[in-house]
Amino acid sequence: MTARTDTEQVELANTTFYEVMERSDFESLSGLWLDGDDDGVSCVHPGWPVLSGRGEVLRSYALIMANTEYIQFFLTDVEVSVSSDTALVTCTENILSGGPAEESGELGPLVGQLVVATNVFRRTSEGWKLWSHHGSPVLAETEEEPDDETPA
């Protein structure tokens, strides 16, 4: 089945982005990003500074892939908005990743993380390409007891 509408095409591009990350397929990942010197490509990984330019962004993904034993994304709250040749996708990345391998070669402990993400795509002659990715961690809410004492 082929995506027919812009919204379907952007959803497919967004899903593909996460699928290639799960497979650690750097070549396919590279093909998903805008190509060119003046494209304004940017990326913010949770806890990282802003990365600007295609080369810097792709280097960051190469580093992440080289140092991640296992990663799986469960996307929720996916919203797609298309305006002319630009598309905005917001979603929650429910991430399950494997820690460093144990000495026995087995995958280390699995860790869960919630990240809210904004992915911006631009329409090109080759389809929708990533222009920007911004991921921000969702901080866990703590249930604090209210103070019973009233300040005097």
Automatic annotation (TrEMBL):
Domain SnoaL-like: 10-138
Classification via Gene3D superfamilies: 3.10.450.50
Annotated protein name in UniProt: DUF4440 domain-containing protein
